[in-house]
Design brief:
By secondary structure, this protein is mostly helical. It has a two-stranded antiparallel ribbon with strand order 1-2. A hairpin with a 5-residue loop joins strand 1 and strand 2. The radius of gyration is 24 Å and the shape is elongated.
Length: 138
């Protein structure tokens, strides 16, 4: 059995976050010791490692909850799990595309600066004040 502190150290998940995952139903409520301390089993450690990795990959709580539910039926086809991962990948790609546009616009704005102008003539300030100076949507 592991204490919440041990579980935290072994997974890198902070104690308040572990409690939050319990409240959200992602992690089963811990058993309690005679002193009312939370006690966790190896399966809880494995589940928390899964949740941590999924969060690191950017999956939201609802997707993780669905993956956990689907994972409790190991003999079922994994089509729904693949769908969740594919949808998340699509969302990540959309964010990357938006970030690339943002990067291009910021590079363009910064390229107008040589650091020798007074702030009153600063292109960055003018661009931030007038969206019309941007080349496109970002």
């Amino acid at each position: 059995m592991l204490s919440i502190g041990d579980l935290s150290k072994r997974t890198g998940v902070k104690v308040p976050t572990i409690r939050y995952y319990e409240q959200m139903g992602l992690l089963a409520a811990a058993t309690r010791s005679d002193g009312n301390q939370r006690r966790y089993e190896r399966s809880d450690l494995d589940r928390l490692a899964f949740i941590r990795h999924a969060r690191d990959l950017g999956l939201d709580i609802s997707a993780i909850r669905e993956l956990i539910a689907l994972g409790s039926h190991p003999q079922q086809p994994c089509g729904d799990i693949d769908r969740i991962a594919a949808e998340h990948l699509s969302g990540v790609r959309e964010k990357i595309a938006k970030l690339k546009k943002l990067e291009e616009e910021l590079e363009r704005i910064v390229s107008h600066c040589d650091g020798n102008h007074a702030i009153k003539d600063c292109y960055v300030i003018r661009s931030l004040s007038d969206h019309g100076l941007c080349e496109g949507e970002h």
